[in-house]
């Protein structure tokens, strides 16, 4: 693997999957807290610790008039300082009724955002999300939580 900084992203194994990322270690480094930094060849394995009973968040995306918004791109963003850790993000696309469900969410504090399409936003950069901050909804997820949140799709995105 060439030297550099890397993100680790994990996908869901299926619709009933409630596993969440509890820890990521690269040797003695806490990758989840500090990112994955590769300085050159290494024989150190990367260990990803998954735990069952992650949170579930059902998101209902709406237009400003309160109508369902199909095909909205929904992102669950961990609050700082965990914003850098893409392994903790959750994403889904709403169905025809404006609903999508995020499963396997690690316990912690988040903000949820819905946009009309995936606009290539770098969610780790506060400058790229500041125009959407008023459209996010804060939520705290505990292990095993089942929550539902309604959110208006960000106006600049549709």
Question: Which secondary structure elements does this structure contain, and how are they paired or packed?
Answer:
Layout: E1 4-6, E2 20-26, E3 29-30, H1 31-34, E4 36-38, E5 46-51, E6 55-62, E7 73-78, E8 90-93, E9 99-105, E10 108-115, H2 126-129, E11 137-141, E12 146-152
Parallel strand pairs: 6-12
Antiparallel strand pairs: 1-4, 2-3, 2-5, 6-9, 7-8, 7-10, 10-11
SS elements, strand count? 12
Category by helix and strand content = mainly beta
Average pLDDT over all residues: 86
Number of discrete helical segments: 2
Q: For the CA atoms, what is the radius of gyration?
A: 16 Å
Distance between the termini: 40 Å
Order of helices and strands: EEEHEEEEEEEHEE
| Arrangement of strands in the largest sheet | 8-7-10-11
**Major sheet attributes:** 4 strands, antiparallel
Gross morphology is: globular
Give a verbal description of the structure.
- With 158 residues, the chain is mainly beta.
- Helices cover 5% and strands 42% of the residues.
- A hairpin with a 2-residue loop joins strand 2 and strand 3 (29-30).
- The longest helix has 4 residues, at 31-34.
- The protein is globular and about 55 Å long.
Short description:
The chain has 158 residues and is mainly beta. Helices cover 5% and strands 42% of the residues.
Give the key terms.
158 residues, mainly beta, 2 helices, globular
